[in-house]
Design goal:
Distance between the termini of chain A: 37 Å
Structural class of chain A: mainly beta
Largest interface: A-B, 20 and 23 residues
Shape of chain B: globular
Shape of chain A: globular
Order of helices and strands of chain B: EEEEEEEEEEE
Largest sheet of chain A: 6 strands, mixed
Helix content of chain B: under 10%
Radius of gyration of chain B: 13 Å
Oligomer: heterodimer
Number of strands of chain A: 11
Order of helices and strands of chain A: EEEEEEEEEEE
Structural class of chain B: mainly beta
Chain lengths: ~110, ~120
């Protein structure tokens, strides 16, 4: 089983749609969790950290379920500029991050 | 502020040649990471340093790969000899402290093609 698994997509949605991405991780000792965003041929950039109580940043909501080893990202009112690959990231080796392969989102007008 | 700087941005070389990738982390950051990204395997951690000391190199594929961090402002990743399967985008990232929730800042990457 891969350490961090994501549905690769692509998810094709119209502007204004709500879309949800899921991610599972294998190591129950994982300590911290993130979503990174990567645009085509660019470097990954932090979108948001994921906290146990869940957290929201504008149109983005992240949830963590430690019992199920599951992380989610919800994007409301999708914009064209949200088109990118979203990487689920987990830390369970001290300071190193383990990345999922990413879920591709395409928002169309 | 200058971000993480990587050079070269693109490298095309022939199999068997030595390749050296360079990284300058953000000033004041004390953790540095080297990653490799391919379509097949995604983003993989190769090695990381804390305060210039290699902490975990278990991701380094084989002896052909080596990394150094001679000082806080410079790191290299060397492949010798290079092989076509090494073709990938190599990212360097830095982080200010070892705090688990501190953001990693990535450089623009080096796109390596080995013919």
């Amino acid at each position: 089983r891969k350490e961090v698994e994501q549905d690769p997509g692509p998810f094709n949605v119209p502007e204004g749609a709500t879309v949800a991405f899921n991610c599972t991780y294998s190591n129950s000792a994982s300590q911290s969790f993130f979503w990174y965003r990567q645009d085509c041929r660019k470097e990954p950039k932090l979108l948001m950290s994921v906290y146990s109580s869940g957290n929201e940043d504008g149109r983005f909501t992240a949830q963590l379920n430690r019992a199920s080893q599951y992380i989610s990202l919800l994007i409301r009112d999708s914009k064209l500029s949200d088109s990118a690959t979203y990487l689920c990231v987990v830390n369970f080796k001290g300071t190193a991050l383990i990345f999922g392969k990413g879920t591709t989102l395409s928002v169309s007008s | 502020d200058a971000g993480v700087i990587q050079s070269p941005r693109h490298e095309v070389t022939e199999m068997g040649q030595e390749v050296t990738l360079r990284c300058k982390p953000i000033s004041g950051h004390n953790s540095l990471f080297w990653y490799r990204q391919t379509m097949m395997r995604g983003l993989e951690l190769l090695i990381y340093f804390n305060n210039n000391v290699p902490i975990d190199d278990s991701g380094m594929p084989e002896d052909r790969f080596s990394a150094k961090m001679p000082n806080a402002s410079f790191s290299t990743l060397k492949i010798q000899p290079s092989e076509p399967r090494d073709s990938a985008v190599y990212f360097c990232a830095s982080r200010p402290t070892s705090d688990l929730y501190n953001e990693q800042f990535f450089g623009p990457g080096t796109r390596l093609t080995v013919l």
